[in-house]
Amino acid sequence: MTLTISITDLTKRYRRGDARPALDRVTLTVDGGMTALLGANGAGKTTLMRICVGVLRPDEGRVVVGGHDLATAAGRRAVKRILGYLPQELAMYDDLTGREFLDYIALLKGVDDRRTRRDQIERMLDLTGLSEHANRRIGTYSGGMKRRLGIAQALLADPELIIVDEPTAGLDPAERMRFRSLLASLGGARRTVVLSTHILDDAAQTCPDAIVLHRGRVAYQGSTAGLAAIAEGRTYLLPPGAPAPPDAVVVNASADAAGTRYRVVSARPPAEGTLVPPTLEDGYAALLQLDGSAA
Ligand SMILES: Nc1ncnc2c1ncn2[C@@H]1O[C@H](COP(=O)(O)OP(=O)(O)OP(=O)(O)O)[C@@H](O)[C@H]1O
């Protein structure tokens, strides 16, 4: 049985009198497997994740994680025991080696037995490809290696629930692919994984389910394929030089010697253009367009 996160009517304002709350009556259910949490800058993703891991309190609403109510101290303690969390900015100690850092985190997570701790750390180092760098000081690690160490610490003590906030931001393409397959290998039947990302390709490759937050509200919850399908019948590739229709969202543009070629999502068919199967990016653009607030 995988763990479920039930979120009901969650509202969070950072300052009293803020015109728009960071989260506005958010109601969601997150089941096992991998779920992508999508949304523009400031949509409320980090706020939602911080509330779900118990480090931030909502103004209103309720979060129950695996049967534990986060409104209670006992509930928050219970969730900490089953949680692996990789925040956007994870504080690491540059003077520690990777192995020492993991040892410290494992102790904080209550893995008291030295041998169990050592075995778990070796497993995580191996899984994240850091074994040969484990005795180097973290201060000498690349950004990608620090991210991998971040996921290694999140996975210590075999958590049932994993929440990761933009884990691939700033990584080069090779590190990103490596990280992506590592994440995909985690989302097995036993775990509930929430992955917040701006990189829709990462979500499309790893997550069967998706949530889109828009200005603090839920704009979509369902399958990733269903999100892509919102742009079905309205995604067009325009020939070089053809202008994008005025009400279309330009998903991308590529230029070559023949001119610029636009990929657009448009409710109305353009004068010239070929209908193409939509990607997750197209579906996301269509969703925000339908919402009347494409950014
Ligand atoms: N500590 C804070 N104090 C005041 N306002 C905040 C604070 N943290 C976030 N906000 C505001 O709350 C809203 C939601 O922010 P949040 O960081 O949750 O969004 P996000 O979707 O994670 O964005 P990003 O993709 O840029 O990380 C934004 O308007 C942001 O400015």
Automatic annotation (TrEMBL):
Tell me if Chloroplast is a UniProt keyword of this record: no
Q: SMART domains in the record, alphabetically?
A: AAA
Q: Where is the signal peptide?
A: none
Outline the extent of the ABC transporter domain: 5-240
Record-level Gene Ontology MF annotations: ATP binding; ATP hydrolysis activity
PROSITE patterns from the UniProt entry: ABC_TRANSPORTER_1 (PS00211), ABC_TRANSPORTER_2 (PS50893)
Origin, by domain of life?
Bacteria
Q: Does the keyword Cell cycle apply?
A: no
Please provide the record's keywords in A-Z order. Answer: ATP-binding, Nucleotide-binding, Transport
Extract the SUPFAM superfamilies matched here: P-loop containing nucleoside triphosphate hydrolases
Q: Cross-referenced PANTHER family, in alphabetical order?
A: ABC TRANSPORTER, ATP-BINDING PROTEIN (PTHR43335)
Q: Provide the family line.
A: Belongs to the ABC transporter superfamily.
Q: Can you name this protein?
A: ABC transporter related protein
State the organism of origin.
Answer: Thermobispora bispora (strain ATCC 19993 / DSM 43833 / CBS 139.67 / JCM 10125 / KCTC 9307 / NBRC 14880 / R51)
